[in-house]
Amino acid sequence: MESSQKATVKNMAVLCSLAELPDGSLRVILDDARKGQEPGAWVCGSLFTFKDYPAGCLDDLASIPEVELADVGYSLLARLLASNRLGT
Predict the structure, then answer these.
(1) Residue 88, pLDDT score
(2) Which of 11, 31, 70, 76 has its CA 20 to 30 A from that of 45?
């Protein structure tokens, strides 16, 4: 893959963020986003999904089962493909 190759960016994206909850746990949030009016701008749409992790759980990603990490990646790609009307 050539990184300098021109590519058309689709209209929908998934925004991933972290929120620290009052009890010290972390929430991983995936929101839908769409292209804004300005080039390179994105507008947050609606919540796609989230997952809470107990305090300290994300200090070492090796402590998260690989299947759980793979599920996050799978969900992300499935959402991008479906929302951009690609894939099956």
Answers:
(1) 63
(2) 70
